[in-house]
Amino acid sequence: MTTTPENPTEFFNTTAELVIAGRKIRLEMLIPAGPTRLAELLPLFRYLTDSFVDFSVENARAQGLEVSCRKGCGACCRQLVPISGIEARRLRDMVEEMPEPRKSTILARFEAARRRLEQAGLLEKLREPRQCRAEELIPFGMDYFHQRIACPFLEEESCSIHAERPLACREYLVVTPAEHCAEPTVESVRGVELVLRTARTIRGLEAERSVHATPWVPMILAVEWADAHPDETPLQPGPEWVREVFSRLTGRTIPEPPP
Ligand code: SF4
Question: What tens digit of pLDDT does each residue of 126-135 get?
């Protein structure tokens, strides 16, 4: 990774080149130089996610696989979507900034979903994901899916916040027939094999560095979770956050750039 200060008091213009399975991926990043909260890097994390997903889709095509996800197919938008705290707060702020009556419409959908989950007996566990052991995640996810609760942002079976959608949504693309997504099983639905997993990496990083230590936030509870959990992640220079993210993504220590 090479970094050159574009404006030493504000941003580093950074280029990273990764070689994955013999193919090169080049990333152009603008990174805040000074003390930065993890949330300020969300646009960068979206860029990284989209870049790795595009690369992964090209790999899938090279193996003769085609992505079957299409606009107007929102079956996966009834699944349990795990997001990071920084994304939950961003979604809450985005809803807050919406003009009326849209804001009230979206908030009413969140509230209706909360009531449905309470009636189904799933709410308490969703509010405390640390109670959910690893082996319980898939059956719990299926219980959730069988409630058929649409994401509050799903409209006419399409995502109404496409540019702002969470990292987990960006990473979810399938190569099996779309009709299988209506009744998904581990065997019948196969996702694009991701070369690097940004969503999981950011969730893990935030959980470790925040006092809340929440491993993931269910998107359907994003607004109430964000209201109850202010941002407590530490401030640290942007390049340090990015080095940490790349170390976790690649499993390698990323050296500091020369002074
Ligand atoms: S944010 Fe968009 S893509 Fe993600 S679950 Fe909701 S509607 Fe679907």
Answer: 999 888 888 8
